[in-house]
Sequence to fold (220 residues):
Amino acid sequence: MSEVTTLNVEARDRAGKGAARDTRRLGKVPGVIYGNKLPPISIALDPRVLWTEMNKPGFLTRLFDISVNGKVERVLCRDVQRHPVNEQALHVDFLRVSAESKVHVHVPVHFINQEQSVGIKRGGVLNVVHHELEVIAPANAIPEALVIDLASLDIGGSVHLSSMALPAGVTVVSHEKNMTIATVSAPTVAAADVEEEAAPEAEAAEAPAADKAAGDKSAS
Fold:
């Protein structure tokens, strides 16, 4: 069961842009609860409480219980409209969910055991292709993150979607058959070192040829 956070809100008696502006003038953030084949409910939230929750990890993948007019609505945040300058919330949308609901969400990818990775210990570099993945998951079992163990990954190795262990009921949305999540590539510094080492050898090989050419000119 995913962690559920309780939010205290106020009901708004009017919807629309004018009502939303009035709510913001009163120091609140307007919002709406919709979905699950029920009428939408207009709400107003304390901006400080909302800001605190927005700055916690996984705000868009966490469940909330919102009490409105004596009824508790279990919801998932689907969208936050932000001020273009200060990024404060201007409006927030919540989707009703139930135990049977399945939702599309973006879940971060976390990599563990980098310090034990065979390739990284040999100087390899981790290249992350996808920092998050879109998944379909049960609303009450949304993973906080998809974890990938790098311990056995060597230089030249890759992590593909097919090798990931997904939680029960979770599927990844992808247009690629077996997309690459991350790779460990050879260090670019090593290539530069090889070039630097090869330079003196090339200069040494060129020196006798230059001396010979100079001698030929003197003889002529």
Notes: Helices lie at 17-25, 47-54, 118-121, 188-219. The chain has a mean pLDDT of 85.
